[in-house]
Amino acid sequence: MAQAEVVIDLDAIRANTAHLAERAATRSAATMAVVKADGYGHGAVPAARAALSGGATWLGVATVTEALELRTAGFDAPMLSWLNAPGTDFTAAVAANVDLGVPSIRVLDDVVTAAKAAGRAARVHLKVDTGLGRSGATPADWPDLLTAAAKAQAEGTVEAVGVWSHFACADEPGHPSIAAQIATFQQGLETAEKHGINPQIRHMANSAATLTLPDAYFDLVRPGVSIYGLSPNPQQIRTALRPAMTLRGEVLIAKRVPEGHGVSYGHTYHTRAETTLAVIPLGYADGIPRHASNKAPVLLGGKRRTIAGRVCMDQFVLDVGDDPVSDGDEAILFAPDGPTADDWAEVVGTINYEIVTRIGARVPRRYIGAGA
User: Fold this and answer.
1) Which position among 194, 255, 265, 303 bears the catalytic label?
2) Domain end point (choices 228, 259, 294)
């Protein structure tokens, strides 16, 4: 085994996707597995393969680069790329039959240019900003985008197959913005119809909405973090999902030190008695938050420990007292059975999405389960 590694359970991704797809199917909605950011750190290609085998029929990514990497890997499932700056060359994506999210007339113009170059109509999903305040046409700008899209569709350069949006607070069940956004989306769909845009696919449900808002399923749901077994809000949204990622490292060296010994940069931690220090070869270059210094939990020798001192670029230290710990012993930073990515997120002051996604490429991935 490597001195540090990420272990990905593909059976968990498959089972999680199946659970979510079954929920979506109760409203006759399809499921898009979001595998952007290298599958939230899990590996886009194996995660996509597991999700499709679990019942997803679409793949979702942010950039056309991510989309084309999946096409090159052999995936021919319907795919949407939705976060591309004005000036992006969409020609290869159009040629590869990648659907494109269009939030503005400027991006629509770029897509039309690409469609002409590719010699085929581009499939687009027009995005309306229903209240998140990020990408997408505002309700005031929406009619102009629809007019431009209808013109391009009449000319044969685009096919407006989708209309979509994204929730701001679906991870807070009952938040007043949820109903307001659904109402704005419905109004946007009515306006689209008046402009001659009749989308086959209407979608706005992220992981949180897929788990809690059947009324927001429309034609397609887009679960992301939940297919990897994490709740979008562990405090308010309890799930039966199974985390797919385990992060582990081997003790690089275990050694006895005296009372009062400073540990790591700045000596922000001093030993309270003679003790054993165990060095784990993972650091912020691998995605371990430096804010985890003196806070984050690690399982070693059957006991839950707390990082002692500052997290360094390549390593951190645990104070294990008089427990029998040796070089090469396994330390679990987070795993399905704990400590968890949720535990890390809580002590660091972030969300579980960031904890798993930030684990860097230097840490090798090992896949288990069917298809590994």
Assistant:
1) 265
2) 228
For residues 4 and 287, is the Cβ–Cβ distance under 8 A? no
Query: How far is 362 from 372, CA to CA, in rounded Å?
Result: 20
Domain of residue 350: give its range. Answer: 245-335+337-368
Cα gap 258→276, rounded to integer Å: 9
Active site includes 127? Answer: no
Q: Are residues 285 and 224 in the same domain?
A: no
Please indicate, yes or no, whether residues 252 and 316 belong to a single structural domain of this protein. Answer: yes
Q: Active site includes 295?
A: no
| 97: in domain | yes
CATH number at residue 37: 3.20.20.10
Domain count, the chain: 2
Q: Given the residues 36, 40, 217, 284, select the one marked as catalytic.
A: 36
CATH of the domain at 253: 2.40.37.10
Per-residue buried b or exposed e for 293-320, using 16+ beta carbons within 10 Å of the residue's own CB: bbebbbbbbeeebebbbbbbebbbbbbb
* Residue 56 identity: A
Answer yes or no: do 63 and 149 share one domain.
yes
Looking at residue 105, its amino acid is I
The residue type found at 233 is N
CA angle 89, 95, 101 (to 5 degrees): 60
Does residue 30 sit in the same domain as residue 142?
yes
Per-residue pLDDT of the chain (372 residues; tens, 9 = 90+): 689 999 999 999 999 999 999 999 999 999 999 999 999 999 999 999 999 999 999 999 999 999 999 999 999 999 999 999 999 999 999 999 999 999 999 999 999 999 999 999 999 999 999 999 999 999 999 999 999 999 999 999 999 999 999 999 999 999 999 999 999 999 999 999 999 999 999 999 999 999 999 999 999 999 999 999 999 998 888 888 999 999 999 999 999 999 999 999 999 999 999 999 999 999 999 999 999 999 999 999 999 999 999 999 999 999 999 999 999 999 999 999 989 999 999 999 999 999 999 999 999 999 999 888
